[in-house]
Amino acid sequence: MNEDSYLLCERLIPESYVQQGRQALLTRKNVIRHLLEQRKWPEEGFDDANIELLLQELALMDSNNFPGNCGVGEREARIHSQLIARRHYRFGHGIGRSGDLAAVQPKAAGSSILMKLTNSLSLDVLRKTGVPSTAACFVVPMATGMAITLCLLAIRRSRPQARYVIWPRIDQKSCFKCITTAGFTPVVIENVLEGDELRTDISQIECQIEKLGKESIACIFSTTSCFAPRVPDKLEEIGLICKSHDIPHIVNNAYGVQSSKCMHLIQQAARTGRVDAFVQSTDKNFLVPVGGAVIAGFDKVFIEDIGKTYPGRASAAPSIDMFISLLSLGSNGYRKLLDGRKEMYAYLKEELGMTLTACKEAEAEDFTKLGSMLFNRFVSGTRVVTKGDDKEITGHRFVGWGSHSNDYPSTYLTAAAAIGMTRTDVDNFVKRLSKVMTKWKNTADKKA
Question: What is the DSSP letter of 65?
């Protein structure tokens, strides 16, 4: 309401009541004004009322919500179901324009503002969580694998003669398939076993560069976070190799924003060597539904080129989700979640150590049944990895699939302490695992 509206309200109720209500509304509007002015991640999270107020006002700036709008184009954001309209806060035009994800739409001022704000907030997030020299980023409406494919396609335009992507092995299908989807040939670098951890074989990367020639290599595609026992790649050393040979470097940082170690590795690799882009999942790091990723880098022009590689407009849903989650959390709320994750990691490690020590003598050939027994007891996310499980993906045969190695010496079970995990989650998991291990061991003893 404007000043005239408040004066008219004073004809209906006492002036003091109107002024009190006006002051409350002004407080909310000032919070929104500060966000638009600073375009930074607020320290304290917004309440739902403020977020909805902002979303509603932005949506009303899109042409599909104009009073008396006469749309005669082929795409006018017409939505039949009110359930769908409410689900998307009446945003219907998506983001970007044909040929550029970051472009502003004349018919969708509100959607365009939301997209720009979300990208600005995301940039502030990456800087505050450990990569302060990040120059640019944008939210892309694709999960991590396809977002990496988009980065590889952008590289293809600048290195048209390149055929190969050097890739230290990580046993996730999407990470391998994003290379072949972009039209490149993967050069798989097997990891080396150090203790019980799998680490990057730097010498093999250098051998492949010498063998193939740097002009034929599109990029080195490294990874920060991954399932144990694979640890983050040696990003600093890879970054130095890329810098010395003038080879692009793409980093899969799917889970990494929640890990200060992963973010520090990226910052250091960019500071001392070369990192062209790093990609993180929105659902894995920011507690939103699957479907989005944040592509970031240290060269604003290259990140803009990646956005221009995307064909056509895109769904605004991942940007809306990211926008709401970041405003709801605030940087202080997110920091508490990050601290909580570290605490839960230590607690999970301690509890699992006691549980597995008590059952370590149990050895059964049908170890995979352990995973299904846990799943049937509503334990999700664990992975049972056995020796000798081979898999073929787009023509490439992986030996020992799931373990990131041709010959990892043991069968094992993984569990992750990811952002949002609670002490109750750990307690319930350990309790159910203990019961399953006892039952599994008894079954194995009877067979023996």
Answer: G
